[in-house]
# Entry
Amino acid sequence: MVFWIIVVVIVVIGLLILASTRKKTAVESTAVKTHKECSYCNEEIEIDAAVCKYCRGIVVGSS
Ligand SMILES: [Zn+2]
# Structure
């Protein structure tokens, strides 16, 4: 009986770790894809923007 309790605990912990790592990667990928920081005023702007909407600075570059 003790053996089965240990097996269940290990499976539950494994599932929790799997769920937490999946959530982390999803959040990181969406945050990186949609916005970037303006190099002039450090405001958050669209990743595809060529001109910053806050300071009108020309934003060139990738990432
Ligand atoms: Zn700016």
